[in-house]
Specification:
Shape: rod-shaped
Strand content: under 5%
Number of strands: 2
Strand order of the largest sheet: 1-2
Distance between the termini: 125 Å
Largest sheet: 2 strands, antiparallel
Oligomer: single chain
Number of helices: 3
Structural class: mainly alpha
Helix content: 55-70%
Radius of gyration: 36 Å
Order of helices and strands: HHEEH
Length: 115
Amino acid sequence: MLMFLFLVLALAVVVGGVTLAVVGGGESAPLQDAAPERLQDPLPADRPLHGTDVESLRFPVAARGYRMADVDDALSRLAAELGERDARIADLQSALAGARAVRPRTDEPGAEDGR
C-alpha cells in the first residue's frame, strides 16, 4: 500500500511539473518558422564558368538533402556551358584541319621555290 501511494504521488508531481512547464513556462512568443535557405553563391551569369566557380559552389541543405531546384539549375547551367565549349572546340578543330589541308607543306623539297 505504501508503494502504491508513493507511485501515485510521484505521478502527480510529474504531471504537475509537465503542466507547469508547458502552460506557464512560455513568456515569449512561440518560435518563428525558419525561412528556407536559398542558394547564396549562384554561378556567375556575366562570364563563362571557371573551375573555381564549380569548386566553390555550395548548396543549402534541405529537409531531405539538397533543394532539387538549386541543383537542377546549376547542372543545367554547367551542361549549357560544356555544350558551348564542346561546339567551340569542334569548330576550332575543323578550322585547324582545313588550314592544314590548304597550307603548302614546307618540308618537301622545292616547296619554298614555288616549283
